[in-house]
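2024-03-11 09:14:02 DEBUG pipeline.ingest accepted 1 chain
2024-03-11 09:14:02 DEBUG pipeline.ingest length=131
2024-03-11 09:14:03 DEBUG pipeline.predict start
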Amino acid sequence: MEKKHRIYSMSFASVYPLYVQKAEKKGRTKAEVDEVIAWLTGYAGAQLQRVIDDKTDLEAFFASAPRMNPNVGLIKGVVCGVRVEDVADPLRRNIRYLDKLIDELARGKKMESILRVDGADAVAPSGPRRR
């Protein structure tokens, strides 16, 4: 039987402040971090605070997400040297998706681009936007 990766049992409450700290260090806000989390998972406001207060682990956090965004497949790129779209395990991929979105926020990307609004993510690698 395959052993679960230890990150699955980490509480969301333990990583959430790290996401906020990373964003704030680059001039972004906690509200923007919360918006990114809400876009990806559907957790917002009181629901998000509840999973933090309850110290819900990452496995349960994603398994119980109110609504994973149907545009999650538009998230592409590399986190820690790994292409997020190539991660086979669904839970690990969801964790990487969240990491990628927070990285984009910290790098100063516009929220419209981070949240894949109105084709904002449809940028050719070396050219203009496609419409």
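2024-03-11 09:14:41 DEBUG pipeline.report DSSP finds six helices and two strands in the chain.
2024-03-11 09:14:41 DEBUG pipeline.predict end
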